[in-house]
Write a structure and sequence with these properties.
Length: 423
């Protein structure tokens, strides 16, 4: 079993390269990031002592446009993870055909242990170390795990102080009113919804008859549940970190969210979560489930929207969904992927189905560099066009080569990037 994420990424590249007989020189170029920097960031802690944090920025490839990719604050950050994530960003941008390349940053830190002031000094310190490498015409960071719009605003401010001129497009995911874009907060989910709609058409299903289970009820999962419910899909199960709820008659995600936020209770919803295990009846239409069971329900579409590596060689045999739409990054291990294909389960890959997020970021950058502000309706119209076209392209490529959708997405992306590389 391969655990190194960069090795996994390179295996995916090799698969795609084999299918399209990729020029061997270009293949060689794509096996390494253009640049990876490691920086030490001294931060004056509230206690008065100085603590030094380690950070990275990997700029993988800019054949299609400026480097683009989030910054992650997490104790598990490491150089191989950052390199892999920067490669996947290059693939994701190319799948949706936006004029951006791939990058990723990270700092080894547990931000939950830092005060707000310490996080601000760390964020400004990180920018002090990488500012010459970034800019709206070079490399455009964004939020990722445990980084927020507020952190993006501090980073923009620090960059502009160092550069000596305003450059709002240096970073995306900023708060609205500070250069942020309308629609960005739910563009990931909305992009995933367009993928679900296209998939349902291909499968000749009807929204009303299509049952859906969603693992994860955060930014991505809760927006996805609400939009799908409004469009008539039948959400039969949702879960968060505390557990989940199943109702064969359907769940109203707005109610689930309200009850989660209010700590109230109703029927089979929960107290302080999306489920109320104590109130559940085992014989009714509605019951409590755990985060393993939600992955194994007999539904039409399973949407992992929480963590990576949840569909694995260990549980893939018990997955009964007819299709999977990956909203989380990396929810399926490479071993499980092979078995999904053998079982005939269609998996719409993360690099396509959650690409609404980076597409929303691209729109933010475009508005910043053009000094424009688009309405939510304008943003959504552009997002819909790009996501539906990307889905169609990947589907056609899958049919053309008789491959799974993940490999097809990599083929589409690698072909686009390769055309722009001179060797
Ligand atoms: P989030 O922090 O807002 O929400 C995460 C959700 O997962 C929460 O509801 C949490 O309770 C739940 N969760 C945590 N542990 C769980 C467990 N063991 N089992 C089930 N649920 C659990 O995060 P998010 O922004 O919604 O991101 C979710 C996934 O989507 C991540 O993989 C992220 O990389 C990916 N993604 C998000 C965006 C975006 O714009 N938000 C873009 C692209 C990809």
């Amino acid at each position: 079993m391969i655990n190194n994420p960069f090795q996994n990424a390179m295996k995916q590249l090799d698969n795609a390269a084999g299918i399209i007989n990729l020029d061997k020189d270009i293949h060689e170029v794509l096996k390494s990031p253009d640049r990876v920097v490691t920086v030490s960031i001294p931060v004056r802690m509230d206690s008065g002592e100085v603590k030094v944090f380690q950070g990275f920025r990997s700029q993988y490839n800019n054949a299609l446009g400026v480097y683009k990719g989030g910054i992650r604050y997490h104790p598990g950050v490491n150089i191989d993870e950052v390199k892999a994530l920067s490669f996947w960003m290059a693939i994701k941008c190319a799948v949706v055909n936006i004029a951006m390349g791939g990058a990723k940053g990270g700092v080894i830190v547990n931000p939950k242990e830092l005060s707000e002031g310490e996080i601000e000094r760390l964020s400004r310190g990180y920018v002090q170390k990488i500012w010459r490498l970034i800019g709206s015409d070079k490399d455009v960071p964004a939020p990722d795990v445990y980084t927020t719009p507020q952190i993006m605003a501090w980073m923009r401010d620090e960059y502009e102080k160092l550069a000596g001129y305003p450059d709002p497009g240096v970073i995306t995911g900023k708060p609205l009113g500070q250069g942020g874009s309308e629609g960005r907060s739910f563009s990931t989910a909305q992009g995933g919804v367009y993928c679900v709609e296209e998939l349902v058409k291909k499968m000749n299903w009807k929204p009303e008859g299509t049952t859906i289970a969603i693992q994860g009820f955060g930014n991505a999962g809760s927006h996805m549940a609400k939009i799908l419910h409004k469009s008539g899909y039948k959400i039969v199960a949702v879960s968060d970190s505390k557990g989940g709820v199943y109702n064969k008659d359907g769940i109203d995600p707005e109610k689930a969210e309200k009850l989660k936020n209010d700590g109230g209770r109703l029927g089979c919803y929960c107290v302080g979560s999306v489920c109320n295990v104590e109130e559940m009846k085992t014989d009714g239409p509605c019951r409590a489930i755990d985060n393993h069971e939600i992955l194994e329900l007999d539904v039409d579409i399973l949407i992992p929207a929480a963590l990576e590596n949840v569909i694995t060689a260990e549980n893939v045999d018990r997955v009964k969904a007819k299709a999977i739409v990956e909203l989380a990054n990396g929810p399926t291990t490479p071993e499980a992927d092979v078995i999904l294909k053998e079982k005939g389960i269609v998996a719409v890959p993360d690099v396509l189905s959650n690409a609404g997020g980076v597409t929303g970021s691209y729109f933010e950058w475009e508005q910043n560099v053009k000094n424009e502000h688009w309405t939510e309706a304008e943003v959504l119209e552009k997002l819909e066009k790009m996501m539906r076209e990307a889905f169609d392209n990947v589907w056609e490529t899958k049919e053309k080569y008789g491959i799974d959708m993940r490999t097809a997405a990599f083929v589409v992306a690698v072909e686009r990037i390769a055309k722009n590389i001179k060797t």
